[in-house]
Amino acid sequence: MVLKRLKEIENATVVAAAPLTEFVGSLMHAAGMREDESLEAAEVLVDADLNGIDTHGVGYNLELHYLNGLMSEYINPRPNTQITHETPGTATVDADRGIGLVAGRFAMNLAITKARETGIASVAVPNSSHYGAAGYYARMAVPHDMIGLALSSGGTRVIIPMGGRDPWMGTNPIAMAAPANEEPPFVIDMATTVVSFGKVSIARHFGVEIPEGWAVTESGEPITDPANSPPAHGQPPLGETHEHGAQKGTGLGMMSDILCAILPGEPVSGLLPDNPKGGRFCHYFQAIRIDAFRPADEFKSNMDEMLRALKNQPTSDGFDRVMYPGQPEAEYYQERVNSGIPLPEHTIAYFRQMAVELGVEYTLGD
Amino acid sequence: MVLKRLKEIENATVVAAAPLTEFVGSLMHAAGMREDESLEAAEVLVDADLNGIDTHGVGYNLELHYLNGLMSEYINPRPNTQITHETPGTATVDADRGIGLVAGRFAMNLAITKARETGIASVAVPNSSHYGAAGYYARMAVPHDMIGLALSSGGTRVIIPMGGRDPWMGTNPIAMAAPANEEPPFVIDMATTVVSFGKVSIARHFGVEIPEGWAVTESGEPITDPANSPPAHGQPPLGETHEHGAQKGTGLGMMSDILCAILPGEPVSGLLPDNPKGGRFCHYFQAIRIDAFRPADEFKSNMDEMLRALKNQPTSDGFDRVMYPGQPEAEYYQERVNSGIPLPEHTIAYFRQMAVELGVEYTLGD
């Protein structure tokens, strides 16, 4: 596994979650955000690091999306977030070009509140920016005994639709979380490509090889050594080829575009000119109250039973165990809450530089 | 494409949709169903044939699931379908072991009715049987200017979860439909395996080869010549291998299990003993009212724009054109409404035999 190898080769500085959240929040605050909202945003990023989702933590996207975006005012640091349409079970929330990390929490909380009354609720968010790991928002439903969904679309075009030659959609992730009783929750958080584009970029940065099917050149040839190849032209959708279901990956990406972008009235990325700053993003959230369908404690016991049965399945060659979506993240979480979050040299150097540039005290290790 | 080849090798009898619906309905009525419900059920099957989804039409599942099920009373021909839980935006509908084709229409109509009030609504259906092509129910939302979703879980275990050795879930399909204005609607209807199990079974029946990744033996070896291989032990999830996203296919299948089975209180197929009759099924439906988020005509115009832009994308080698999910089905529909539905010899022979057995007049061609 490339990601595993990337985690190993980092010459890491290990930092605890609380001071990391405070420091990253102070950078975002200094870049123009309200203090409370900067901490909310930092929490989402550090949560990704705690869960082992290094592609969506503080190390990669803070530089690529958030601080750059805030400082160039491509992201509006003080947005006037507004509900533009509303029914008992739905809302459209215009994020006013604000940071997706804050708009996402606001919108998911609104969906949870509405679902208390109607049993299920959805909130669509146009005019936003990158919101980090989709799974965060889906998991917000779990403590309320709800099932959560979170989708996002937009950003840089990377998915080459089946039969096409050029990238046409963002990685358009789909996430769902459902609570169990004693087991960690089920959490799927998937790009609708074969892998997230972040993994290709990180492999390029660290000089690590990648499998065929993760990224292709302009002529459609697979890229396996991204550090010694031209930048990826695009990524195949999940399924990769027609015979192996690329039309399904394409369709899942389009589902995200329809619910996140077309439903609340945002153009899909395939219809926008290239944007060197990464394009706009839009989101879709849903909360489903479990006890609208049956008692929640019965549901959660049955979830335990399902997840345990899956974990106890006999393994195939090359696997030590069968895991369910959400289980590896929960294991990282335990480990990193106890031992801290490893950050690569590049990120520490970037933090130091930004601390100077934004006049913030650097409070983390070397 | 194997499916294309299958469609070509059939020594077909061509039948128009209306008499086919009437004949298939009369068989189901003679097998114990109410006359109106038998016609409702037949409409769903013939609609799959019209849309070119031969794996889910009258030819394959009538024998495998419906008539066998009704005649053995494994499917309850006269169920007492009941709402057991209800909120403004949700319901649980116990299908009382009735035919999924009728329970599915009832439940999706209920979701559509509820969504008129709350903007979005979901209905979960435990204790049901096979309901045909999931896309049918998702498409029911389209004339109401709604987005429809339909999932199903249960049945014979075929999906081998990533890292596992044995099949553990049904193919657990996920479908979504969204209306456009002038273009045919977007409709994704996908098994969470690489391909539906029906395609493997049909390839076996007709002696056609299949690509690696569609089915495997007990030791995990790929099956490519199903007619000359032992019956498939199971199917890889969408993504096929860990490096290519098999954890995503596994997770999508589990999403179906959670929403269709655990949410309304049905055991997932992985926890049930083997069932030679194909196991129980359960479903989950959702309707989303578009004008709860923005004016529906604007949404539909933007859908046209998106779908046309995708169709006009430059193609890669081996493809004549880029198509969107729902487009091939719409093209089959036009063709088969005009020219009729081709049925293989095997199906015609089965119809004749069932007509005799059930005392129904055989009214179709040779």
**Form type of chain A:** globular
Order of helices and strands of chain A: HEHHHEEHEHEEEHHEHHEH
Helix content of chain A: 25-40%
- What is Rg of chain A? 20 Å
Strand order of the largest sheet of chain A: 2-3-4-8-5-6-7
Tell me the strand percentage band of chain A: 5-15%
Number of strands of chain A: 9
User: In terms of per-residue confidence, which ranges of chain A show pLDDT below 50 for 5 or more consecutive residues?
Assistant: none
Main sheet makeup of chain A: 7 strands, mixed
**What is the CATH homology-level superfamily of the largest domain in chain A?**
Malate/L-lactate/L-sulpholactate dehydrogenase, NADPH binding domain
CA(first)-CA(last) distance of chain A = 28 Å
- Tally of distinct domains of chain A: 2
CATH class of the largest domain in chain A: Alpha Beta
Question: Biggest interface in this structure?
Answer: A-B, 86 and 86 residues
